[in-house]
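Researcher: Please translate sequence to C-alpha cells.
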Amino acid sequence: MDKAKISVSHGAGGRMMQELIKEIASIIENKKTRDGRGIDVLEDAGIANINGTKIAFTTDSYTVDPIFFPGGSIGKLAVCGTINDLAVMGAKPLALTLALVLEEGFPMAELKKIVMDINKEVKKANVAIISGDTKVMEKGKIDKIIINTAGIGIVRYDVSDYYARPGDKVIVSGSIGDHGMALLARRFKFETKLKSDCSSIASMALSLLKTGGIRVMKDPTRGGLAACLNEIAEKSKVDMVVYEDKVPIKEEVRSVGEVLGIDPMHTACEGRCVIIAKEEKAEEILNMAKRFDRNASIIGDVVKGSGKVFIETKIGSKRYLESPIGELYPRIC
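Model: Translation complete:
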C-alpha cells in the first residue's frame, strides 16, 4: 500500500475497493465498541450497544455526476443512501447529519434545489437532520459539490451479512441496474426513459423484517448485485446459485449496458435490497415485497460452499458471477 496510488477503481464497489477498505481497517486498532459490531466485520452500518439498546450508525459520502439525474439528485441520494444503510441492518432510522463541501462559484439556485430535495426526503422518511457542516473550496479544487451524511437508528431486528445458510433463498426487491444505467444514459446524453430507482427502502425493509424469516438484508449499491452477493457469500462461507432468467432487468437497462459494455449485474441500485430468506418464509416475503414493487423476485439459492457465486444461464450452463474489479465509469453515487 505504501508505494501504490489510489485510482478511481478503488471507490467503485468491486474487489479493489474491498481490498482498500480491508487495508485501511487493518491499521485501525479500535474497531468496535463493547458488545458491538464495527469495522471488524465491515457491514453497511456499525452497531453500538448503549445500556441495552442497540444503535446502528453509518456514514457515506456522495460525489455523483451529474448532480441532477432522472429520478433524483445528489441531495435525494445522500438522504436515501444513508437511510437504506440503516434499514438493511434492521434499524429504524432516526436522525441524520448533513455536511456540504461546495466549490467556489457553485450556483445558489442549484444548492437550494438540492437542499429542497433533501428536505423532501427526510420528511417522507420521518427522520430529522440534527447536525451539519459546510465548507467551501477554491474553484477547481473539487467538482461542484460533495455531500456527506451520517445516520443513526434503533436496531429492531438481528440481521447480518454473516448469517446466510444453505437452503436459504435469494430475493431481490425489484429490477436491478436502474440507477447506474439511468445516470450513465444522462451523462452520455442517450435518449432513454430510464429513471434511477433512488428511494428510501426503510418502510419496506421494516415491514419484511417483521416476518422473522430474513437472515441477511443488503442494498446492492456500488458494484451492483454481483458485488453484493459475493460479499455475503464470502462472509457467510456459502456458495450461491443465481438463475439468470429470474433476475429482473429492464430492457432499456440491458440496451444501455450493451452499448457501454457494462453488465447490469455490476451496476449500482439505490432503491433495492437483496434478501437472504429462510426457505420456509421466502414465498411470504416475496409476496409482501411485491406489494412495494411488482418486479421483486426469488432469483437463487444458497448452497454449501466456500464463498463463490454462480449464475445458471437460460440454457443450463453455469459460470462464476464475480465481483467487478473496478468500474468503467466512476461517480455513480
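Researcher: Any highlights?
Model: The mean pLDDT is 94.
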